Amino acid sequence: MSKQAMQYLSDNRAQMLEKLNSFLKIPSVSTDSVHKKDINKAADYLESYLSEIGFEKVEQQDTGGHPLVYAEYNKAGSDVPTVLFYGHYDVQPADPLEEWKSEPFTPEIRDGRLYARGASDDKGQVFMHLAVFEAYMKTEGKLPLNVKVCIEGEEEIGSENLYKTLREKKEQFNADFAVISDSGMVAENQPTILYGLKGFTGSEINVTGPDHDLHSGMYGGAVRNPVMALSHILASMKNEDEVVTVEGFYDGVEPLSDDERELIRNVQGEDFESSTGVSETVSEKGYTAKEHTMARPTFEINGIYGGYQGEGTKTIIPSTATAKITCRLVPGQDPERIQELLEAHIHKVAPAGVSVDVKKEKLSAKAYKVEPENALIKKAAKSYTEAFGKETIYVRMGGSIPVVEWIEEIYNIPIVLLGFGTPDDRLHSPNESFPLDSFDKGMDTLVRYWSEINSKDKH
Amino acid sequence: MSKQAMQYLSDNRAQMLEKLNSFLKIPSVSTDSVHKKDINKAADYLESYLSEIGFEKVEQQDTGGHPLVYAEYNKAGSDVPTVLFYGHYDVQPADPLEEWKSEPFTPEIRDGRLYARGASDDKGQVFMHLAVFEAYMKTEGKLPLNVKVCIEGEEEIGSENLYKTLREKKEQFNADFAVISDSGMVAENQPTILYGLKGFTGSEINVTGPDHDLHSGMYGGAVRNPVMALSHILASMKNEDEVVTVEGFYDGVEPLSDDERELIRNVQGEDFESSTGVSETVSEKGYTAKEHTMARPTFEINGIYGGYQGEGTKTIIPSTATAKITCRLVPGQDPERIQELLEAHIHKVAPAGVSVDVKKEKLSAKAYKVEPENALIKKAAKSYTEAFGKETIYVRMGGSIPVVEWIEEIYNIPIVLLGFGTPDDRLHSPNESFPLDSFDKGMDTLVRYWSEINSKDKH
């Protein structure tokens, strides 16, 4: 471990936080085209920071969508492995804005947490890596391993162009292993390495009835109400036991072994009631909430709209109704096939008198599982345990990181999912935050891990 | 019939249309508080027009909500009956604005129709009455009957304050009969008198799950999705046969007699497919679309919303979901009881893990049916037939006019529903319009009707 690098991070903590704040202040929302300039600003920020640190071949790659920031460091020597570090600089929309206690793009520290959109997902965690690289360069004049940096701007909208880039520039991005910090610990201060992620797929369902909103008194009784038709369709897809009732949905899903159930039972997970405010958890019949979130497929409606939403009443039969749905998938489920099953189901149950259009999500991902005994993962766990002073645990999680599937598919290298977020970070929600403690100990972990990687390969 | 009054309307047609346009230009949307000034402007317009015509006691009554415009004319003599003329100057919101071919509050004539929000419902029809009163005063120096004018500004939001006013100022508003032109003909140029209207009641259903939007990967499988819960609730309320499945909903509904079915069958109704653009009509099992719209109760979802509605995807479990519903009722159904049944049903089927709140519509109305053989109705039909050159028919309709129920309840006087709208008017929708032909013949009808009323009572 580099004591100088550690000292540097400690001595420059205030400046580092300041530098992170200027990154978080950029509203780089990828899903909304009004933020195109901010996306470019965030990419520019990364380009200049990487150049400052001393990376080479720093560039913004034109992906056809938002730019991908690439950089290399090759001076660690040919006997030292090369890591592909992946992260993303785009963030989720901040709405509903009125629920934020401080401005989403004006970072604020309260009770040991840094509040801002992207503080945890993923700008904060990307920044920790860059700060650690800076610390090594400034104190030792070099990095302990070779690095390829790949920070994209389209993670929150499906990483479509990243997939093309990783396939087309295989030579440029190839490495000995990959490290991604875009996930979290099961509890604050509980080192956690993910060995499994869910895949996902999604659709938008558009139901159209009359060609304009109708007076409900004049036409009620003559036409099918699109919102009611949509409600019938949605209600037919998951029952009150939280079982997905789309034919074939569970085909090929590997049963949860007793061993894995035991592993999940032993994970000190978050208290869902207190972190979400629900009166009681609900989960798929036959499975606990922890089992369902970590290892069973899910089906969620992400949004719905149709007809009048304003103040007061408007006695209409709406012309259209729309729902956005996504499924999280486990090993054994193919996203393409699931999309086909969803679409077939929707058309099968759609009632007469309305037309139903199913728009597939352009991108989707298969689930991912890795062997926890892999040496690179063991080293990450060791560093993590030392930095946090607590034994690292291995878990599967419900989130989806498409790039993980693609790196495995295209490069077939080990992927280390080393995340420092916590269950209270409120990712994708108002009041997203990241604990400063994770910031410090996470950087500590990374300083140790890179030294470990270096030392091992010298022996 | 007054030939001079008819001639006056014909000679001054352009000026009359101009005067109507200034009324239609005022965006007097009652449901939205940003339009409060416009509401007052519309009331001012009526106040000065009524004074100009020569009405007495012209005033804007403070109802606690939007003002009610009142005026009297008592000089027709005590041997002539007094009519209570009711109308409303408020309009529905114009959204979605992008679907209007011309600006909603910039009236435009195209193909013999006047396009504007309120052209038919109800400013256009209110104006016809005032124009006819003006014509009588300008040509004969008096009106053929005594008149009490009651034009309110809260019809589109439930007329809550009107109900109080009608009860509290019983002496002031009492009359021998009432005339309302806030309805339409079953087909263009087909004189139609309504002898039955539906009642209505409504609720807003609010479903709350987690206290903030959650990441669907982290929490999918642990909490109930409020949009899915709402879909299950809504789907349980009306089945695919368009039968309302709320227990007790149809209790007390009088069966449709063979005579009435025959009457409905013989009404040349509109072609629902072509006027609404649906591929096929759907209606309650066992009833035709005409029977269902005219004489059977209905249940409609007027709007729904929850979660992400923007561009792209946002993989969240929404915190809340809301639906607005209204039912149209027939004789035998009590609005209060129906509200209770809806609420009980919703709470009964609401799944665990979410909290459900049902907000009742403050106001509701019973259905209304009158005897078509009433002498005042027969006279209206005679005038209507003469003006349009076609036999008047009597129909029941699906719309609800709460004031009709209240006038019956409080004053117990005959109510003549004399409407000149047409099925193509697109009430409550973008591109609302009113045929100029209805405008001319409708005023012709009114000139004839007031003379009829006068002559009969002299005999």
TrEMBL record, chains A, B:
* Gene3D superfamilies named in the record: 3.30.70.360, Zn peptidases
Alphabetized, the UniProt keywords read:
Hydrolase, Metal-binding, Protease
Question: What are the recorded GO MF terms, alphabetically?
Answer: metal ion binding; peptidase activity
Specify the Peptidase M20 dimerisation domain's residue ranges.
195-352
Sorted alphabetically, the Gene Ontology BP terms of this entry are: proteolysis
Pfam families noted in UniProt: M20_dimer, Peptidase_M20
Which NCBIfam families does the UniProt record give? PRK07907.1 (NF005914), PRK08201.1 (NF006053), PRK09104.1 (NF006579)
Q: What is this protein called?
A: Acetylornithine deacetylase/Succinyl-diaminopimelate desuccinylase
